[in-house]
Each structure stands twice: as structure tokens, then as C-alpha cells.
Write a structure and sequence with these properties.
There is one protein chain. The chain is of the alpha/beta class and about 290 residues long. Helix content is about 35%, strand content about 15%. It has one domain: Ureohydrolase domain (Arginase, Chain A), CATH 3.40.800. The strands form two sheets. The chain has an eight-stranded parallel β-sheet with strand order 2-1-5-10-9-6-7-8, with helices on both faces. Strands 3-4 form a two-stranded antiparallel sheet. Helix 2 (about 60-75) runs parallel beside helix 3 and helix 8 (about 190-200) runs parallel beside helix 9 (about 245-255). Keywords: Hydrolase, Manganese, Metal-binding.
Length: about 290
Amino acid sequence: MKNLRVIFPMWQGGNQVEYKQGAEFLALIAPETGENTETVTVPVHEPSADSKVEDGITGRGALEAELSAAQSIITEHAPDTLCVLGGDCLVDLVPFAWLSEKYQDGFGILWLDTHPDVMTPAQYPNAHAHVLGALTGNGDPMLTCRVKKIVPESKVMIAGIHSPNAYEHGYLEKSEINLVSPEEMMTGTQPLTEWIKNEKITHLAIHFDLDILDPNNFYSLNFNNPEKTDKDFEGIAQGKLKLDDVIKWIAVASEQSNVVGVGITEYLPWDAIRLKEALSKIPLLTA
């Protein structure tokens, strides 16, 4: 089996420049890979002071170029499995679309996230909140055109979700997407095992957005941005789980199905990011 590790420091999907550095730090701390793994980096646009909304999507032109670059790289390597180190959540669009086309009806997605990411430009301009909707065939054509084999909603489980906004609630209520609350995740993995069995999922991709974690227990999250206050996050659901809770679910998922894709996203190690910036201002540490 040929595994491809993709370092994808995309940041404009979340319109937050620190996502780029988060992906770069993830690449540094991730375990070493085996001999069957190749590592590639998707080039992204350098952060700028102004990220404009273009036809409803923040940074549309840059995102389109970066998604195309990822598509070209993955197509060239033609991997059997993919591990993605992001960046904002949009990094998983092209890799998961590749796996859906490769594994067809046996493919499913476990979306470990506090948020469902099923909005469109009509509700919200930042495309990291559009990615799961696009994988299931709903959203802006710039995103959905990259999904040749749409993932049926019944083969998607969002675990860790709570307090969706009005649009998300209405969308999910009408969909066949399986939902598991943080409290249900804490009590056991039965919903996961039953879903994999009932949907006959033989090959699974796992999206792990770190904001599923409780910001009072895991600190490298957007909600702990030292430059913002609680008012900046009013109305936005925050994670409730501990890291061990999520790892347990991933372990059980790997026992019940072949895990062929993993995406780790939205890591924001604030102290490291601030220290890196400070070091760039110290004599003898820069060119």
C-alpha cells in the first residue's frame, strides 16, 4: 500500500494566517513515516493583509489554485492512503474526494468536529465551513467539481457536533448524515461500530478538526487566541472532548474498517507562533 503524507498549510479557507504556521508545526511534530510513505507539500499563497471575498468566497482565486495544486500532486502520486496535515478544514476536500473515487461504495467519512462544515457562500464566506457539504454534493461549483464520486450522506458520520446554527440545524435535519453528540462519544463507541456495519463501510477517511477538543483542556485552538475575547466567539460552538476521547474513537474505527485517509486540521499552537514571530526580531537569529 502506497501512503502519501500531504503537508497542506492552507489558511485562506479559514481566513486566518496562523493556520499556515499550525500546519508547519504539525509537520515538525508528526511521527516519522515508514518506507512506503512519501511526503509532499502543497504550495500555498503567502499571507497578505487583505483577503477579499470573491463571488461569495474569501480568497476564491488563491483557494482554487491551491486545490488544483493538491489535485495534481495526488493524481501524480496515485496513493492508496492519504494523511493530510493542515491548515484549515478545506485541506481535506481533494484528498477525501480522491479516496471516494478510488474506493467507491465501500467508502465512508468519519467527521470528528464540533461543526458540520455544510454551509455554502450564501451563509458564510470562509470555505473551510463548506467542505463536508461539497463532499456530499452540495455547495459552490468551485468545490463540488472536484468531487467525482459524491459521498452518500448515509455514509457520513459527524461526531462531536453540538449547538449547530439555524442553517446547519435545518440542513442536517433533512439529511441522512449520522450525528453523534460529545456526550454520546464519551459514553462509548456503539454508534460508530453500528454505523460502519450497517453502511457496509470497508474503507474509511477520518477528519480530525482539533476544535472538537475542550479549549479548557487543550490549548492550541482558535478559541484560545490571545488576541481575541469571548465576545469574538459568541454563538460559535466550542469543543467538549478530551484528546483521549477522540483517540479512542479513532482506534475503534481502525479496528472496524480500513482507515485509508486521515486529516488533522486547525492546529494553532499560540505560544509557538508568538515565539517564532518574536525570534525573527532578535539579532543574530535572522539573516
